[in-house]
Specification:
about 15% helix; 35 strands; mainly beta; about 500 residues
Length: about 500
């Protein structure tokens, strides 16, 4: 039986082949059938407080009985032929538009499938979304604000948000002092919710109201014609920021205030001298500068104390060191930096004075040098190669009362002297190419109670190779003869660093 079945099957195959060779098949091709489209949700019944947020995830799918789906086209409200957008996705998150000025809206979303013959579903799927607009919000970042008092440059950072999605934010605006006519729109970086701007006054010496130029971001990018009116030098100012969304809803307004101090001199005096003697030390230095014809601007940064090894950067400085503080310090031609501890804010000078020196600035630093690690970052800033070392039974360095502080051969000026015996001050060796300006006769104390003459390097004042910085490693208030001190400062500040009012 199996053999007969096989023979029958072969005969049938030969017959079919013969037919196909002698006769062609005939008939009509079926026309392409349009695809059909479906939405995952068919109907939404929500009203009042139950309306949807304008940011919605919408999904759909399609079917083609005689082919396959190559993609979809969707339209929002406007379904004219030029308004459709093609996608291969079957879902996406949309921020549905709300009519400007309206709190609620009913938004039509329509989608249609496209098959492999590029025929579109003539009906498509549609759904009306009842949505409600949520107000945006804005918040100033407290780590991106000016200190209580600042000079010509101030920086501000803030964050914008919207429950309906960041794409629903239309603009963020700022104003200074005037919230009626002073609002100015600020660009929002693409895809970000944080904005950072810098305001710089060009005429920083004239009291009164003026315009500030806007620079964008930490890169301090110029905006050519973007300005903020109404800033007042010599007064307290208020910075306002707000956001608006695509429906015209306005956010809360966040604020911060600061005092703008005018720059009156080409010289900045920085007081980082902590403790009860701070004002007395400042007066000593300012009196000497006044006798030299210099009335500097003053920046007091002694608000914090050294914890562990280093002081935390002063709160009198802006929280944004780069670019705000760097560019602010570069406004002066000369800086006179006074402190009583090498572990205070001079620690950050290498970074924050980079632009100051690049612009040709000159600096005088007077801070007592004490024993610090040779790996300390300050050695990358001050022209000091190394400090004196104690050996054997030696316990500390001593500068006895009336010890002379003598100028070296490269500087012709008065001799100073120590007013009272001082320990803990270390002699210094200049770096290669630097110049020793003053020396003192150091002794080393011992555990046995007698002192040993220290006979290695004994510099106490050094000028860097570039002749742009002089470091004086003693406390000026512990030197005898005010008249001699003024003469010494005259030779160092004016004679060597060319300080001018």
């Amino acid at each position: 039986m199996k053999t007969i079945s096989k023979i029958s099957a072969l005969l049938l195959l030969f017959i079919l082949i013969g037919v196909s060779c002698n006769d062609s098949l005939s008939g009509n091709f079926n026309e392409n059938k349009a695809p059909t489209t479906f939405m995952t949700v068919e109907k939404i019944n929500r009203d009042g407080d139950f309306r949807l947020s304008s940011q919605i995830n919408i999904s759909w799918w399609g079917n083609d009985s005689d082919g396959y789906i190559i993609g979809y086209e969707y339209a929002i409200n406007d379904t004219s032929e030029g308004a459709w957008t093609f996608t291969t996705k079957t879902d996406s998150t949309f921020i549905l538009p709300i009519t400007s000025g309206e709190a609620t809206d009913d938004v039509l979303f329509k989608v249609r499938a496209v098959d492999n013959d590029e025929e579109r579903d003539p009906i498509g799927a549609r759904l009306v979304y009842p949505i409600v607009n949520s107000e945006p919000s804005v918040s100033i970042n407290q780590t991106e604000t000016p200190p209580d008092t600042m000079y010509a440059i101030a920086s501000f950072g803030w964050t914008v948000s919207d429950p309906d999605g960041l794409g629903n934010i239309m603009a963020t605006e700022v104003a200074v002092n005037d919230t009626i006519n002073g609002w100015v729109e600020m660009p929002i970086p693409d895809g970000e919710n944080r904005v950072f701007i810098n305001l710089e006054l060009e005429d920083e010496q004239t009291l009164g109201e003026q315009e500030a130029k806007v620079y964008l971001g930490r890169s301090y990018t110029s905006t050519s014609d973007l300005t903020i009116p109404g800033l007042k030098i010599g007064e307290r100012n208020i910075f306002y920021v707000r956001a608006t969304d695509n429906a015209g809803a306005v956010s809360n307004v966040d604020t911060v205030s600061w005092f703008i101090k005018p720059r009156t001199s080409s010289v900045l005096y920085i007081n980082d001298y902590s403790g009860s003697n701070s004002m007395a030390n400042q007066q000593l230095n300012l009196s000497a500068l006044s006798d030299l014809g210099i009335q500097p601007d003053i920046w007091i940064i002694n608000d914090k104390e050294v914890a562990q090894d280093k002081v935390e950067v002063s709160g009198a400085f802006p929280t944004v060191l780069d670019p705000t503080l760097k560019k602010t310090l570069a406004k002066w031609d000369y800086i006179y930096w006074s402190s009583n501890d090498i572990n205070r804010n001079i620690t950050y000078a290498l970074d924050i004075t980079e632009e100051f020196f690049d612009d040709g600035g000159k600096m005088f630093v007077t801070i007592p040098m004490k024993n610090i690690s040779q790996e300390d970052e300050i050695f990358n800033f001050l022209p000091v190669d190394s400090l004196g070392t104690l050996v054997g039974i030696q316990t500390d360095f001593l500068l006895s009362a009336n010890t002379e502080v003598t100028p070296t051969s490269v500087i012709s000026t008065d001799t100073l002297s120590i007013s009272k015996s001082t320990t803990g001050r270390y002699p210094m060796k200049p770096i290669s190419g630097a110049t020793s300006l003053f020396e003192a006769d150091f002794y080393a104390t011992t555990v046995l109670g007698f002192n040993q003459d220290y006979q290695k390097f004994e510099s106490v004042a050094i000028e860097n190779p570039e002749k742009s910085l002089i470091y004086f490693g003693l406390d000026l208030s512990n030197l005898n003869s005010y008249e001699n001190l003024v003469n010494v400062l005259d030779d160092m500040l004016i004679g060597r660093l060319n300080f001018k009012q």
